[in-house]
Amino acid sequence: MVQRCPEGAVQDLSQVQDGHLDGVDDICSLSIVTEAALLHTVRVRSFRQQIYTRVARILISVNPFHSLPIYSAKYLKDFQDAKDSFDLQPHIYGTGHDALRGLAEGNKDQAIVISGESGAGKTESAKFLLSYVAECVKGRDLHGNGALHGLEARVLQTNPILESFGNAMTTRNANSSRFGKWLDLRFSQALGMKGCQITSYLLEVTRVCGQSEGERGFHIFFQLLQASNEGALKFLGLKDPSSYRYLKNSVLSAPGIDDRQNFADLRHAFNLLGFPEEEQMQAFQILAGILNLGNLEFFSTEDEEELRLEGDEPLLAAARQLRLPLEQLRQGLLRRKVVTGRDAIETYLRLDQARAARDGLSRMLYGRLFDWLIQRMNDGLEISNGHHPDGKEGRPNGTAPRLLGILDISGFESFATNSLEQLLINLSNEELQLQFNEAVFKSEIEDCLKEGIDLGATIQYEDNSDVVALIDGRGGMLDMLDEELAMPKATDATFVNKVLKAHSPSERLIVPKFQGTVGFGIQHYAATVTYSCDGFLEKNADRLPLETVADLLQASELPLLQEIGQSLEQAQRTSSPQRGRQSRSATCRFRNSLRQLMAKIQASETHYVRCIKPNAQNRPKEFTSVMVHEQLRYSGVLEAVRIRKQGFSCRMLFEEFLLRYRCLTLLAPGSSDRGATVQKLLEWAAEKLAVPGLRLGSRRSLTGMAAN
Ligand SMILES: Nc1ncnc2c1ncn2[C@@H]1O[C@H](COP(=O)(O)OP(=O)(O)OP(=O)(O)O)[C@@H](O)[C@H]1O
């Protein structure tokens, strides 16, 4: 077939070489690397069921959307026995192999960053990695006394718990993780597993109270409703999902998700991780309480003087499940204190305020329950050996644990409407991208140094530090958002105006076309995103849903709620008086955790897994090139290729070079030494053919960009 190309576009076409069509294992093995070659290679391989492709140290993983026989014991063993993962086909086990080898040989902690859009296969990749690592280090007990026996199995059992409470069906993925996750695996010098700590990021708690069309609430609610028909959980008195405001608009069953089986797996995991039965029951009671809280409805008396509850049934059920004093819960939901001068009077909430308080309480309870679960898992997975739990310590005497971190985090997001959550996710992607570019850039320089060639300042990478500064720097958007918390008359609109005034000279900030729009655009590394700032201040303030919530929860008969109440009270007491609300803001907490995460990644040798979703319908054997190309760009892989092209994009081993340019040896006769012959040929080509940028490495002949 002949494809016509507009004349002006001819110069943008890339030359196709044989290797570009082969579907090679490693893009960097191509003598000339182009974006088109990358896309074509990934496509060819994915049709051959080879879902993994290497771009040097980056692993591209295309979701096959059906199970493949490539995770069997045989594959596992092949990688375990391999000296170098590059001797085998690219595979997620190869990334695990590299990281473990890095731990064993090097002096640096290791990090594996898995990113990609929703449904691209991040969580599955993280699970394959974890099983590989667990299998490799199994039984390598530090003290040889069996004390750590079973820790690897326990670490694997965190998955059912995290998935039940943190995953939900969305339109893009029936088992979508609604939070980001960093797993910190700790090893002894002999690579025995010593512990694991989990950190979560940005759990989507808004999903507790409502979901978009075609989606579902968190899996755990559906598991619990199924299980509570029978046996030990009957006492919860739960009904079907249509009885609950928070679930009745949910799609009831998620394709491929077996709620009954998953609940059995959850209970097994709880037991294996040492959650006592009473604690499990308390967690289920809190969930049942949340569902009943959601059914509370309010009305104002005719004179609008008072606010009352429509029927007491949901309140009674919620108080019963949460073991809260009934009247304290009722008054907490209906009234608040207003301070006028020295006096404080009690007044009724408005209808909208009461509904917001009800949903706020439910979200807060769910979020705190999730945090508590993680804390409990962490406590059970930590084998103390005198090291610092934040992993800050170095390894001066070789006795501190070796760390392997696995990050499973949502990729860059750009939806029809983008809010504070997208801004924070995109900020984390900007930070990771900056780190990624620096690492790729550094490895390119190191690669060439190995060939005895110093690239010096000849290559550059796209520096997105200005976007990071715009959002997260001193005086940046998030600082300004925090400042608004201290301003009594601040609104989302005043925040946007201040941002536009302070930062409009920045090329990265896009000023809205229409005056009065409460929002702005940001030119991110991947694409320009328009943010709607309605609700930014409220989300950031992260106010307690009820003034009296700390006291209320401490009055519960459930120890778990008492604990949450105490931690709320403590947080109120210890928040810095100078910075007041700012130090408790949602964005401030996120920024702190992001900084800690980046510090850990920066201190590690990092491996990257870029997961790609090949089609929007989640179908096997379908490959939408435009979609894949966009993801390759968002994931920074194209930038990695671009960096490579600036240096020596065409690299050939001496044998390969001599084979291809054999005919020229007549013009520039060489010696029997292959390197010397290549050297002569390069000199000849540079002089006679005026080809610039040719260099000779120690193993390869390298051709600079100008020569392409
Ligand atoms: N290697 C694989 N082999 C077979 N199926 C896979 C593989 N990776 C992913 N899948 C399928 O794709 C689905 C989505 O994958 P996964 O949940 O890991 O995506 P994700 O990137 O973590 O999405 P989200 O960000 O929404 O959590 C899985 O439930 C599974 O059915």
From TrEMBL:
GO terms for molecular function: actin filament binding; ATP binding; microfilament motor activity. Belongs to the TRAFAC class myosin-kinesin ATPase superfamily. Myosin family. One of its GO terms (biological process) is actin filament organization. Gene3D superfamilies: 1.10.10.820, 1.20.58.530, Kinesin motor domain, Myosin VI head, motor domain, U50 subdomain. InterPro entries: Kinesin_motor_dom_sf, Myosin_head_motor_dom-like, P-loop_NTPase. Residues 594-616 are annotated as: Actin-binding. Residues 22-708 form the Myosin motor domain. ATP binds at residues 116-123. It comes from Cladocopium goreaui. The keyword ATP-binding applies. The keyword Transmembrane helix does not apply. GO terms for cellular component: cytoplasm; membrane; myosin complex. This is Myosin-2 (AtATM2) (AtMYOS1). Keywords: Actin-binding, ATP-binding, Motor protein, Myosin, Nucleotide-binding.
